[in-house]
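User:
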Amino acid sequence: MYALQPVDDAARMQILTVRAHERGLALAEDTAQYLLRRCPRDLPALMALLERLDTAALSAQRRLTVPFVKEVLGG
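Assistant: Predicted structure:
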């Protein structure tokens, strides 16, 4: 029998960073912290948000920075 443990913020940040890297994106620690503070914290929502940010960064030819993320999220 296996017991799943809840994912803490450090693990969420690591997951976001690794997934961003797999997509060819550099996700700075301050940007990842911003996402965790301002967005839904469940992993499916974070992965969908990362996909949205990837698409926006590609079309705008910009890096994932806090100002760019604010712009994309409308805040």
